[in-house]
Amino acid sequence: MGHKVNPQGIRIGITSDWKSRWFSKKDFASQLKEDVKIRELIFKQLKNAAVGGVEVERSVGSVRIIIKTARPGIIIGRGGTGVEDVKKKVKDEFFKQKKLNLKVEVEEIKNMEESAMVIAQSVAEQLEKRMPFRRVLKTTIERMMENKRINGIKIEISGRLGGADMSRREWSAKGNLPLHTLRADIDFAKVTARTTFGVIGVKTWVNRGEKFE
Prior knowledge:
four-stranded antiparallel beta sheet; alpha/beta
């Protein structure tokens, strides 16, 4: 089970919450597609801002987008101009013909070691800079495990590693990672590194301890 199911998806309602918080009977499919496209746009535009997640809340006549990031200063910019740029881009792309109140909020991730998405982006960034993949895995895991609030971490990369002709999979892990324990707060993320040899996939699992509420 642990290999076949998204660790976050199976834990919704137990340790994690929905990334999109709204309900619609008529436009469910179109709004869900819109949310996916909004996330893709924000991740693409804020590639260097260490975005850990994008949450969307909708109510009648308003949409609230919460961007979780380890580098809030890059997104906010001078005098909040960066947030306005993101807001304008989203509004022009998705809500140009609609009259609604669009809010974009930036939330800081205090400990970047606890965000699987930020770690995966960091690994992908280093692979794109042609750094040796084994060293990237080893140094990243050792650096992240210095945080005592993390119980375990696993990073897996697959593709034409080191420019090899045949693609393969390599992984490195440290600590405890109980994927079958539903009360374990496991954060999971997938990122794509686009190198000169081709695409390399990066997967990250982070065990943030157990929740008993």
